[in-house]
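User: Hey, quick favor. My workstation is busy. Could you predict this chain's structure for me?
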Amino acid sequence: MKRRAFLQTSAVLGVSFVAGCSLPVIPKRPAAQYEDALGWIRHSEGRCELLLPRVEMGQNIATALKQVACAELGIEWEALTVRLPHTGEMGRVRATVGSESVRDFAVPLAQACATLRDALAAGHTQGDRQAEPRPLSELRAFQPGARHVGRAAAIEQAHAIVTGAPLYVADVRLPGMLFGRVLHAPASPERTSTLASINEDAARQVPGWVATVRDERLRLGQSEGVGIVARTPGALDRIEAALDARWHSQGGFTQADIDQAVDVDRHLAGDGFRYTVHDDAIDAAEDWDVDLRIDVPLAAHAPIQPRAAVAAFDGAGALDLWVGSQDVYYQRDVVCKHLGLDEAQVRVHGHRVGGAFGGKTLCTVELEAAVLARAVRQPVKLQWTRAQEFRQGFHRPPSSHRIRARLREGRLEQWWHVFASSHILFTNAGLPAWMQRITDFVSDAGVARGAQLPYRCGHRRAEFALRRLPVFTGPWRGLGAGPNGLAMESAIDECARHVGADPLAFRLQHAEDPRLARVLHAAADRAGARPHTIAAGVRRGRGVACGIYKQTSYAAVVAEVEVAASGLVKVTRLVCAHDCGTVINPDQVRAQCEGNLVWGLGMALSDRLGVAHARIAAGSFAEAPIPSLDRVPPLEVVLVEDGGAPSGAGETAIVAAAAAIANAVRDATGVRIQRFPIDPALLKAQPA
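Assistant: No problem, here it is.
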């Protein structure tokens, strides 16, 4: 039986054996087609309008797709308006994830715009048009020197952002709007928690109290929820305190339990590794030239904007829902299922998202707001607190890696990379344990992302194990590519040092893909000569790392660091060379690269979420800090462009950023960091 057939059979068996279990709503991810794109672009009374088929969350895809549309239509910038539609205005599009917006949506949009342009040129100004696909070579937007493309452009919504215009869902104001919150036990929602008691009489006495809502649909994971509704946001804290909810929670766990579950050496000695990325035969018995362990902890998305939603029912029972989500159609699907509504009864209005990074894909606040709005029969706004963001959302899973390598005559001969982690695409925040066990038959491609070795090697083996953890884990910028790149590029650096080779030259010697070699050369050329030693007691170093994201985009990073006698690491410079095919807007690609570099900075120096008392310990940025501006060094981005279809830029540089910093620290101090984020105590200068 083929694996796909086995999975289908297993799914049927799983449902029959677990009678009564509710199947979660599965996101629908249709491919972007040129037929669909005809619904994104419209012409009326001499003007064109683009209904944005992607969520705008800071990547400025509204600007990039407007550039493509204007170039293909041959119109002035001001002749096209861009608008975020609601779900009733155009057909379903897939979630805004995976750095796919330019790669997968720019060409269909250009096809549609070419069809519209030809129709207008022929005098056809009314009615719908049939799709007329044409090859890339005939699309004006992707030709050398195309107007509006390949250059900077005015950022859509930029003026509105800096003037505080109402762009985000938290800005939505409706007549008669109330404010809600859903309370849960102070424990991980992966653990079963039920409400033991509440003091509703005391809550009723708080000025501004409207309702206390008990509804099974307020459950988050295994955690029962109780809703409160108030007339003002400020009353919510007072009502929560007066309600004095008490809970029964089952099953405690500690940080040691998390660490043990993904301990790669325990898996080596015990259960082994179920999934493979490379499956060459290797000799595991002989000694290895390089044997390196790398551990990467839990980490948060840390969006500046906590998630929020506003829900309002009309007199006929139809629902309008305002969201800041990466997948507005999925929000509609979930709400329809849980509230028993048809698609035609629900309109989901997407808003600009104040940071998401893979974390705002599931339905959480959206369903909570809808349940509370239906209960009180008034519009309700619900926004998570910062503590709820940390403790109720899902996070980058921890991972533990061991990489072993053998070299012969200065070249890689055998490579063995084993690692253990938790689920990403098949997140436990969305799938019950029984269903996740079914998905385990087909691995988790998100965990494996970026684990393909991009270097020549005689024999390559890469394999991994998955463990469901007692905390929510899921997609985080680049999925597994960041941690996998950090581990692999640290090991490649050690291989170069083992044979006495320059780390850059060693990578160039082994690079299989000429585009990878090209970004390495470009980054090294921009970095120039190595820095000279400066103040006494300060150790300086330079590191390089590179990688390929989703086999389509390429990045190389050079990092320069200073390490004080105390062990404190200061990154003084980051240079990134980036190749994502045809560049629509160089400023925005550079901005995406800079964002990835800062994420790499955090990954190396600060990202860590600990657990305590059976939940995520952090409740604020003070307890889970993100890189502050004074820690961000000068960032230099070189765009390497050699034509071809555009590919993704939103996550590529994360494959190399943290590793370049770690390799620079190794260069400066001689210490190979094996557990992240970097502990300055390990780098204290030894007394003379």
